[in-house]
């Protein structure tokens, strides 16, 4: 393709709102342009890389036995009312009315549509399992779209669905998809982890997120330094590792801590570590007030609290509540003499503690030599805290490290949630009606593209992996006004194309510096520069990533490029 | 692909709302399913044929030098306000508000978005011409969606745009696109015509529609029986072919026609042909009342009237208007003694008429022996009527025939409409700022698919052209319970796939009759049936379209199929 006739326009400056590399570089290099907040168009270069990612996804889906289809973006409200999500999905679901005032959703996901299609088509166990997928623009009205393609309001997604006759069969489909996802992200050259995740809004149970490791990721992953264990930090259980103390319990004392506001200040004042203080936080769990006690150096994980109570809503109590129940504000709470109306529960790590400190439910005072069990009653000990770096890995192998991740894929075991609500049944081999079991599997295709750029860039621009780059070769004619340069470049352009090599040809009448800068920004793996030695038939070949370069003869070029790509 | 695991479900009955073959067959054969009125999902079989059409379009666009990109479906209202179409596009444009109450359109077409992208990227004549395209779902809230994929509210479209520095350059881009379109529809096996068309809502001037000839088409095409002339019937000019009459003018007479309401009744009553009467119809052209006179057997074409007056609005006058201006109602209007406030204009065919009949502007009376020019003044003779079958072709070659057509493509010379409204300028080779000249080029991809089915079907189902069919071979195992049949079919399935042949394998445990009926409905060009002679290694091979069949040995199959497809 000749660059002079391509819709591409590079920028010297980063867009004002672009905080991260992929956003900056994809806009600056002319791959994408913003149309509205969180809404992007893909210019020709961008569309080419998008298509390469898409084809990898398509090949792996086909290999997994899923069939491609294409559902509509317009979805009648009635389907979402059947599943119940019309009311629960909230403001993220974009909605509109047609000319007859009929309500529609713009597809944020397609569980409802596919379930309605399958329930009308598939009636027998003989036709299960079934796996389908589509690659299609999705719409979600993010409250705060940001980071370019990472969190947009219209984005390209691959969504797949499995329909199974049993959970055993679902597990098999899930495994196939899990493998396909690993293949996709591996082929995209990404450093990623499959992590145990929360099922959130989708209503599923067993679920993994595929996370690309990146400092700009919005999620924190807890992973083992020796095994392949990885989980969203919110989901990682903490092994109960407490061993009894050999210290003798001393007598409870009440001490004045007049100016000490934080736990650290109290610990410093009393001359002990943060781990020797108790942290007490009051929650309202549905209608029950709960005082959660952890070690001072631990953080309460309210998802674990919610799961312990099997609750719908967990909120922090208000300071009004603590005053009326405990007679004090947040800073002086403690479990000693807590009233019966409040549940006192504590993290496993609290149980073995001896002679620790806690708030005295009285401003300006703390108890010291507090001993759980002796000085206060604990209704239940449980895993209530966030895992920390250095904790033993929950799978028993190695220790936990943290990393940030960009979620590029998600596999869910949905179970019967949609099939039950929408009445998707089949006749089993006994002729008995059964509800289908479903799985749902998503890949953010445009987000994957951005994640690749996050992992493949340097100070001069993008450094695409060989199989994702928009073109294989960037051919530069340094001074096309010179006849011998133009002629050699034109010849090479023809020869490369004839050899089936994807080539972008910078035939513009621009300064050499502009061309080199644009080429580095684009990130095409191999640059071929036709310059001063054109009259000898010699050109410069340079690798974008390594910076290695060599002068080659015109007749060596094709072989060189093909060999290089075959080795990737 | 194994049919037992595919999301497909054939129907015995036509859907109640399906009036035409493509709608009936695509639904019955399980290619598409309706999600809401005018909104369809493509099941796996449908997606495969859609993709084949898409790939043909993509290849021809690339060959024409257009670059693929992908714009967003969400388009901010501001862009449509800039072009002026936010107000003029009307109820067909689907609109919505985001969570911040910002207004958006769902892309019905993308002139605004592409113009905004190009004006921000391209500043110099050196970067023109530029051609881009995308293949993407479009949204139009049709008042009356019907005919399945032919007139839907969400549909797959290829839209392309050219940006040129001059009209000469636009003509070149237009020619390239015209050729690409002819290639696309030829490769799709369609019997089509490129016809001169009205530019309608798009604001363009020179424009052609690509029409697939079909009885169910919503447009009428006037075409020459000997040349390649073809035009939308509304657009075809009529050659002035009138020759002077040798009849002697007789004296004007007023005759009573008490019970004759229609022109035919008057003609019969007075004993002459319809062509010997004058038809007089009153229009309001902007603010001017105009009495248009044509021969009794001709129909007024109000587009021609509008163009003659270069008017914005042409309406029929009300009967109140004719009473107040002419002293009579619609049925008795005539040009004799028309008041000066009314323009009398007449079709060319009226000029040479001698001794004809017209209304007397008095209920129950007509004039006979009327002679234009002598008995009434004609302000202007012009081409004012619809062309008729049998008229000479406007290009001077042959005579006109009518056909109905399905519009599958449309090429427009937009000129400077969008570029002017949206300020898309460039610097020319003199450094002077100029407004860009644009072209716009659309193909209804999903509609093309439906048009193919309209031309390729028989009483048993679809009969796909070889390069559009979802699979190349439909392999049937008639009785998979019999080991030798299952074994041979499984072997053939492997062998066909290994040879790179696309094969759908009906491995279901269904009756032979069901399998044959489904196979005919699907329309895959070659059917291979493994039945009773499986033990001898012999299978039946049948061509879907011709019905030709032969028994072949297992080892002859691959060669037979490859030879057949190579000959297509």
TrEMBL record, chains A, B:
Protein name, UniProt field: Proline--tRNA ligase
CDD domains: ProRS-INS, ProRS_anticodon_short, ProRS_core_prok
Main localization, broad class: cytoplasm
Protein keywords: Aminoacyl-tRNA synthetase, ATP-binding, Cytoplasm, Ligase, Nucleotide-binding, Protein biosynthesis
Family: Belongs to the class-II aminoacyl-tRNA synthetase family. ProS type 1 subfamily.
Pfam families, per the entry: HGTP_anticodon (PF03129), tRNA-synt_2b (PF00587), tRNA_edit (PF04073)
Catalytic activity: tRNA(Pro) + L-proline + ATP = L-prolyl-tRNA(Pro) + AMP + diphosphate
Subcellular localization, as worded in the UniProt entry: Cytoplasm
Database matches in PANTHER family: MITOCHONDRIAL RIBOSOME PROTEIN L39/PROLYL-TRNA LIGASE FAMILY MEMBER (PTHR42753), PROLINE--TRNA LIGASE (PTHR42753:SF2)
């Amino acid at each position: 393709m000749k660059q002079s006739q391509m819709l591409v326009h590079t920028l010297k400056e980063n867009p004002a709102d672009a905080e991260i590399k992929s956003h900056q570089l994809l806009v600056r290099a002319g791959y994408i342009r913003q149309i509205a907040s969180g809404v992007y168009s893909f210019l020709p270069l961008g569309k080419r890389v998008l298509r390469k990612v898409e084809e990898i996804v398509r090949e792996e889906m086909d290999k997994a036995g899923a069939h491609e289809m294409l559902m509509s973006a317009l979805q009648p409200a009635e389907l979402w009312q059947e599943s119940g999500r019309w009311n629960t999905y909230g403001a993220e679901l974009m909605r509109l009315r047609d000319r007859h005032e009929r309500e529609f959703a713009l597809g944020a996901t397609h569980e409802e549509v596919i379930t309605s299609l399958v329930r009308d088509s598939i009636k027998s166990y003989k036709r299960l399992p079934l796996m389908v997928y589509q690659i299609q623009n999705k719409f979600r009205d993010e409250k705060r779209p940001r980071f370019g393609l990472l969190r947009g309001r219209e984005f390209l997604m691959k969504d797949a669905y499995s329909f199974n006759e049993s959970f055993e069969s679902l597990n098999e489909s899930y495994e196939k998809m899990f493998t396909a996802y690993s293949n996709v992200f591996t082929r995209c050259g990404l450093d990623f982890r499959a992590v145990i995740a929360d099922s959130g809004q989708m209503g599923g149970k067993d679920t993994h997120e595929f996370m690309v490791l990146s400092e700009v990721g919005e999620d924190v992953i807890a992973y083992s330094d020796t095994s392949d264990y990885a989980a969203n930090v919110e989901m990682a259980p903490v092994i109960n590792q407490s061993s009894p103390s050999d210290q003798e319990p001393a007598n409870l004392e009440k001490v004045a801590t007049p100016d000490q506001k934080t736990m650290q200040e109290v610990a410093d004042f009393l001359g002990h570590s943060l781990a020797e203080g108790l942290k007490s936080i009051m929650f309202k769990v549905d209608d029950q007030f709960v005082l959660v006690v952890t070690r001072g150096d631990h953080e309460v994980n309210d998802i674990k609290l919610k799961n312990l109570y099997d609750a719908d809503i967990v909120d922090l109590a208000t300071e009004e509540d603590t005053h009326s129940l405990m007679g004090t504000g947040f800073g002086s709470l403690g479990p000693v003499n807590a009233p019966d109306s409040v549940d006192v529960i504590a993290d496993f790590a609290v149980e073995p503690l001896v002679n620790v400190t806690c708030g005295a439910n009285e401003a300006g005072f703390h108890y010291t030599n507090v001993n759980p069990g002796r000085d206060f009653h604990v209704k239940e000990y449980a895993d209530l805290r966030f895992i920390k770096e250095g904790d033993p890995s929950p799978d028993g192998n190695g220790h936990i490290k943290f990393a940030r991740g960009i979620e590029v894929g998600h596999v869910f075991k949905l179970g019967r949630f949609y099939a039950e609500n929408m009445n998707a049944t089949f006749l089993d081999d006994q002729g008995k009606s059964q509800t289908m079991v479903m799985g749902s599997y998503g890949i953010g295709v445009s987000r994957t593209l951005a994640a690749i750029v996050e992992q493949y860039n340097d100070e001069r621009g993008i450094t695409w992996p060989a199989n994702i780059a928009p073109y294989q070769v960037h051919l530069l004619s340094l001074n096309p006004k010179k006849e011998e340069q133009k002629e050699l470049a034109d010849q090479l352009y023809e020869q490369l194309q004839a050899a089936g090599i994807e080539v972008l040809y910078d035939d513009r009448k621009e300064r050499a510096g502009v061309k080199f800068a644009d080429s580095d920004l684009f990130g095409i793996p191999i640059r071929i520069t036709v310059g001063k030695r054109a009259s000898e038939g010699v050109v410069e070949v340079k690798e974008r990533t390594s910076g290695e370069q060599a002068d080659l003869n015109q007749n060596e070029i094709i072989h060189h490029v093909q060999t290089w790509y075959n080795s990737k």
